Amino acid sequence: MRVVRNLVVILGDHLDDASLALEGFDPLQDLVWMCEAPAEAQYVWSHKARIALFLSAMRHFAIGLRAKKYPISYRTSEDQLLPTLVENLERDIESIKPARIVMTEPGEWRLRKDFESISSDLSIPLEIREDTHFLCSLSDFEKWSRKRSVFRLEHFYRWMRMRTGFLMLSNGKPAGDRWNYDAENRSGFGSAGPNKVPITIRFEPDEVTRAVIQEVEERYSDHPGSLDKFDWPVTREQALLALDDFVKNRLAEFGQWQDAMWEHESYLWHSRLSAALNLHLINPREVCESAENAWRLGHASLPSVEGFIRQILGWREYVRGLYWQHMPAALNENALGADRPLPKFYWSADTSMNCLKQCIEGTLRTGYAHHIQRLMVTGLYALLMGVRPREVHEWYLAVYVDAVEWVELPNTLGMSQYADGGRMASKPYIASGRYIDRMSNYCSNCIYKPNQATGAQACPVTILYWDFLDRHSERFATHPRLGQQVKNWQRKSEADMDYIRRAASLLRACS
Ligand code: FAD
Ligand code: SF4
Q: What angle do CA 306, 311, 313 make, to 5 degrees?
């Protein structure tokens, strides 16, 4: 039997053959180990497209490694899999008897703990190598944050611009003499709607993906979502084509329409690159470089490119740092004491509220919704309704193709649900139906009226917005940005207040 020096474990979101886990790999002594453990598709009720994307990308990656003569032990359902990664790895370690396990930093706290337990239970050394797919290492984030009592995205982002040089001038100043073009990047389409939305590049499922799709349809038939429109990039080559397509055809208008929404238009000018980034098919550095080059060549304006780079260099790196700093406690935070179950329509889109219907239908059809749909429609409604943050988190982790816990959890619990009490966002992202009306055409095709909080056509989002201010008035009365909204609530007539309170409790009872 072959003696194995390093068993290199490659997880489904570490699909990069230039990763440090494969550094120094010796095909004569080392072995790659990959596994399609069923529990990874089941620990939240995963969308079929999310399962298919991970499995297809893993299989393509393994084919690529084999072509480069890497020896691999790749476990599929044909190998009589045990449910979890840990169980399968333990079983294989007993037969392979490697001297050491090597891997890249896992993207989930749960998995990191699992691998540490295997290492100590089986007395086998575990070497966790840095994940170079990020532009800020966890230790650098730790050093940066240790110096601060309050740390907001904006501080972190400027620091990242300075240390990476993205959109910086040779005199050390930001390009255009401004760090932030947010004010230019928040337009709605108005009643005319979007003009000529570019068609995004599609990746027709090849033989490998078709086999995965069939398997997912059979084995996970009761899971949510559809595979009919599956067209996600599943290889590095496809991810690079998707990046090129975005930079050529959508980046120039990305900034302006970043927050806008429109019926039946899921992607608009968004990049659709999050899943490829999170699976490590492409690197954030090459994505930012490509966007910056487009600006330097005059193909896209600075506000648009800055708006895009901020998401990747700023938000994406920032939420990862926060995740590792605050797990596992973050998982159970619930600063606002929310105690309601997630409304059932989150799994079916069966609701009369058009904004929620559109966003959830799109999510179930494609496994995608853009940031404002997640934050200011589905997230907003759960926050206003007072849904238990953990249930909201489990929904987001299940239904999006790009969902990996290090990025999903802080966005959901911190940014969207304020469960961390303000660590990530200085205030809860609350709004009435008027915001949704300004940013989309959802309200024009809805049976409710966004500006009404009372009466037969009162908008549920608006009712719950006022009710939120009522329920949390004490907490936010003196808040610099929410205090005025609390005062607006307190100025309402007793009759309106009474109506809104009763309507809100009815909405809760019916959800
Ligand atoms: P674009 O709008 O084109 O943005 C470009 C890139 O910037 C994205 O691909 C992504 O990598 C990055 N980015 C943008 N916003 C964020 C952000 N807030 N945090 C981290 N990175 C960001 N993103 C995920 O990748 N996985 C998740 O599971 C996830 N869950 C979310 C849950 C909630 C409640 C919210 C509010 C946001 C979540 N996001 C998540 C962030 C964001 O919504 C998605 O990254 C984005 O919608 C992906 O689409 P896109 O690639 O077209 O992004
Ligand atoms: Fe949503 Fe209210 Fe607008 Fe209807 S009126 S789409 S419920 S915000």
A: 85
Could you tell me if 181 and 303 are in contact, meaning their C-beta atoms sit under 8 angstroms apart?
Answer: yes
Alpha carbon 468 to chain centroid distance? Answer: 26
- Rounded to the nearest angstrom, the distance between the alpha carbon of 404 and the centre of ligand 2 is 30
Residue 48 in contact with residue 220, Cβ under 8 Å? yes
H helix or E strand, kind and range, residue 121: helix 109-121
Pairwise CA distance, residues 194 & 189, whole Å: 6
Nearest CA to 399 out of 356, 352, 358, 347 is that of 347
pLDDT digits (tens, 9 = 90+) for 72-87: 999 998 888 889 999 9
pLDDT (0 to 100) of residue 1: 64
**Alpha-carbon distance 506 to 511, whole Å?**
9
For residue 53, CA distances in Å to 125, 216, 229, 353 come to: 31, 10, 12, 30
Please report where in the chains the tokens 């020096």 appear, as a residue.
Answer: 5
CA distance 3 to 488: 72
Per-residue CA distances from 204 to 176, 226, 265 (Å): 41, 15, 20
The answer to whether the peptide bond before residue 328 is cis (omega within 30 degrees of 0) is yes
Spell out the residues 6+ positions from residue 256 whose beta carbon is closer than 8 angstroms to its own: 184, 185, 187, 269, 303, 304
Q: Give strand pairing partners of 6.
A: 100
Closest ligand, as measured to the CA of 424: 1
Q: Which of 375, 373, 342 is nearest to 360 (CA)?
A: 373
434 Cα–ligand 2 center, Å = 8
Band of pLDDT at residue 174, cut at 50, 70 and 90? very high
Is the CB of residue 47 less than 8 Å from the CB of residue 400?
A: yes
The radius of gyration of the chain from alpha carbons, rounded to an integer in Å, stands at: 24
Would you tell me the crossing angle of helices 317-326 and 153-164 to the nearest 10 degrees?
120
Verify whether ligand 1 is closer than 6 Å to residue 403 (CB atom). Answer: yes
Q: How far is the CA of 63 from the centre of ligand 1 (A)?
A: 29
DSSP annotation of 68 reads T
What band does 150 get if pLDDT is binned at 50, 70 and 90? Answer: confident
Name 79's Cβ contacts closer than 8 Å, sequence gap at least 6: none
